[in-house]
Specification:
mainly beta; four-stranded mixed sheet; elongated; calcium; membrane; Cadherin domain-containing protein
């Protein structure tokens, strides 16, 4: 009996469910007796169960292609108890796509310099799939995390660079990589992903670039060594490739310096905008990469003006002339002051610092006539003009303008006074010798003030004449009894165009002959003045009269005495003091006062005696004679005994010289003093041996009393030492 096949081979998918019939063996001939199948050899450990009667194989448990791909069994057939035949049975496990691809790690990382050559493969992606055939064949792709075409995976499973890198544009990539098996249809495929972090390593491929301003403005008075600006430069590289250093080129000429690390630029020399108002600083910034990369740039420094210059006039003094009839608003001159500063610091305004008939345009500096001029009132002006800039703290300078006002014939001749009186003695023997210079004032200058004089009216009798220079003459002798007053009109004409005139009325008074002397109202004057009066005190009036007319009757007073402290007012006759008087020095003065008429050539006079008594005031105090006093007295004295007789004097008179004595002080009660004589007595019986000092006071009786003090030193001696004397001769 034989099997139907010499070898059996069955294919079983690894996902076949247990209990499924997966194969069947059979014999060629049918036996009359029952046959029985059995597994003689089995490397599957009963994975496949053989039905002994039907010859069918049932799967006892799940298959795993990855664990074992095929199995070999030996099957025998028995008829009765004997073995009839055997056969090999092969079970091939067919792979089913049951396993997804597996990466060796969930996240891969790689460092890739940004100058890596395109096409470089830099990371091997380790991935596996336990399936077989198409189920285990894998396809790797970059699914995301980078621009399309940036990376690719070659057939060997390595990640490769497809386009150039730029760290400054993107410093790293977070890629998603997928692994797909090749099962068809696609819907049955397994897909697995992994992350790949690609860090782009920096190379020094970027030069630093300036990001700070390229233009700055600083005041010209900026303090030395101060920071005028801080440069900022950026380098897109990292590390030392991105660290920058700053350098100044030689174009700064030492005016500036820079801190290489911080970029702070310092001012090392003083600025002067008026010399240089714009400067260019050439700055180089380099990185620390290898090789280094550098960028050079220019910083424009504008020097801002500060108000450090005064306005300056072209000259310190100006001289101008202007006609006095110049109308208001006439422009005379334009001054100009220049200020080297700019802006408001250089804007100049003009000011006239004193009041005058001129005004200056504050902006243009034009000097203009403001008020009507009058050369005769003021022919010269000295103006101080100030130029002031408009800085916050203004600066200024001044110039002097000398203005001369030119004359025009605008003043008529003026007689001062307009009426003149001329006295002429009657019966003059040579009247033609009597002349008088007539003079008018014309405040104009030059030919405008050249005057000619004429008699206009009042000379019908031809008694007078005047020459062009103004000399007035009396041609004939005058008779006061016939005419005592003549009124003559004189005209003065200047030489200007047109000529101007002035008029004088001249009164010629004919005076009589001086034939009377002054007479005083009294034959003798007696007066008194106090010695305490102040200088200039009027204390008497002397009067006299003269019956003549005019000057002959006018009296002038004077004194012959020159060394006296008095004076007389020559017109009124008032006597007044000229010095401080002292009655104690001189108590009476006798003055000779003279009254003279005012005849110009032959005055007549008379005199009178004036007696001046000096009245006393209390201006001297009493004074003790022989002060201080010492009195020697017996040791024992009866009441009323004379001790001493004191004497004081006072240079005043009357009450001012009436003296009153008194005692005061310690021990003064032991004695008494006669108040008017100054004699000192004992007040009671006295017996002493020790000396006593008594104070004495003397005072005058003036309205404002004055006084003096002294002391008496009373010394006691034995009575036997004293002779007997008359009391009236007793003294201290």
């Amino acid at each position: 009996m034989a099997f139907t096949k010499t070898v059996y081979s069955f294919e079983v998918k690894e996902n076949t469910a247990p209990g499924t019939v997966v194969g069947k063996v059979g014999t060629v001939f049918e036996a009359l007796t029952p046959i029985k199948y059995s597994v003689q050899e089995d490397d599957g450990e009963n994975l496949f169960l053989l039905s002994p009667f039907s010859g069918e194989f049932l799967l006892s448990r799940s298959l795993d292609f990855q664990a074992q791909r095929f199995y070999i069994l030996t099957v025998v057939v028995q008829q009765g108890d004997s073995k009839v035949s055997s056969v090999r049975v092969y079970f091939n496990v067919l792979d089913v796509n049951a396993n997804p691809p597996v990466f060796s790690q969930d996240t891969f990382s790689a460092l890739l310099l940004e100058d890596t050559v395109v096409g470089t493969c830099f990371l091997a992606l380790i991935v596996s799939d336990k399936d077989d055939g198409d189920n285990g064949a894998l396809k790797l792709t970059v699914a995301g995390g980078a621009d399309e075409g940036m990376f690719f995976i070659n057939r060997a499973g390595s990640l490769c660079l497809k386009t150039e890198l730029d760290r400054e544009r993107q410093p790293f990539y977070n890629l998603t990589v997928t692994a797909n098996d090749c099962v068809q249809p696609v819907s049955l495929q397994f897909t697995t992903t992994a992350n790949v972090i690609v860090v782009v390593g920096d190379i020094n491929d970027n030069a630093p670039s300036f990001v700070s301003t390229k233009t700055i403005s600083i005041p010209e008075d900026t303090a030395l060594h101060s920071v005028i600006m801080t440069l900022h430069a950026e380098d897109k590289d990292t590390g030392s490739n991105g660290e920058v250093l700053y350098y100044l080129n030689n174009t700064s000429s030492g005016i500036f310096s820079i801190d290489n690390r911080s970029g702070k630029i310092y001012l090392d020399e003083a600025l002067d905008r008026e010399q240089v108002d714009t400067m260019t600083i050439t700055v180089t910034v380099t990185d620390k990469g290898s090789p280094r990369m550098a960028t050079t740039g220019n910083i424009t420094v504008h020097v801002e003006d500060v108000n450090d210059h005064d306005p300056k006039f072209s000259q310190s003094t100006f001289s101008l002339t202007v006609r006095e009839d110049a109308p208001r608003g006439t422009s005379l001159f334009q001054v100009q002051a220049l200020d080297r500063d700019i802006g408001t610091n250089g804007q100049v305004r003009y000011i006239l610092t004193q009041t005058s008939p001129f005004v200056v345009d504050s902006v243009r500096g034009v000097i203009t006539v403001k008020e009507k001029l009058d050369r005769e009132r003021n022919s010269n002006y000295t103006l101080i003009i100030t130029a002031v800039d408009q800085g916050d703290i203004y600066r200024s300078s001044t110039a002097t303008i000398s203005l001369t006002v030119l004359d025009v014939n605008d003043f008529a001749p003026i007689f001062t006074p307009q009426t003149l009186t001329l006295h002429v003695m009657e019966n003059e023997e040579a009247p033609s010798q009597l002349t008088h210079q007539i003079s008018a004032l014309d405040e104009d200058l030059g030919i405008n003030s050249l005057l000619t004089y004429f008699i206009h009216t009042g000379n019908s009798d031809g008694l007078f004449s005047i020459i062009p220079n103004g000399t007035f003459q009396i041609v004939h002798s005058l008779d006061r009894e016939k005419e005592s007053l003549y009124s003559v009109t004189i005209i003065a004409v200047d030489s200007g165009l047109p000529p101007l005139t002035g008029t004088l009325t001249l009164h010629v008074i004919v005076d009589d002959v001086n034939d009377n002397s002054p007479e005083f109202s009294e034959e003798v004057y007696n007066t008194i003045v106090s010695e305490g009066c102040s200088t200039g005190t009027v204390f008497a009036m002397i009067t006299a009269s003269d019956i003549d007319e005019g000057l002959n009757g006018e009296i002038r007073y004077s004194m012959e005495n020159l060394d006296v402290p008095f004076a007389i007012e020559e017109t009124s006759g008032e006597l007044l003091t000229t010095k401080v008087l002292d009655r104690e020095t001189v108590a009476i003065y006798r003055l000779m006062v003279i009254g003279s008429d005012k005849h110009p050539t032959q005055p007549m006079s008379s005199s009178v005696l004036v007696t001046v008594l000096i009245g006393d005031i209390n201006d001297h105090g009493p004074q003790f004679l022989n002060s201080p006093y010492v009195a020697y007295v017996p040791t024992e004295m009866a009441p009323g005994s004379v001790v001493c007789a004191l004497r004081a004097t006072d240079e005043d008179t009357e009450m001012n010289a009436e003296l009153h004595y008194s005692l005061y002080g310690q021990s003064s009660d032991l004695f008494s003093i006669q108040p008017y004589s100054g004699t000192v007595f004992t007040s009671s019986a006295l017996w002493r041996t020790e000396a006593i000092v008594v104070n004495v006071h003397v005072e005058d009786a003036g309205e404002n009393p004055k006084f003096d003090v002294t002391t008496i030193s009373i010394r006691f001696q034995n009575a036997s030492e004293f002779p007997e004397i008359n009391e009236k001769h007793l003294g201290c």
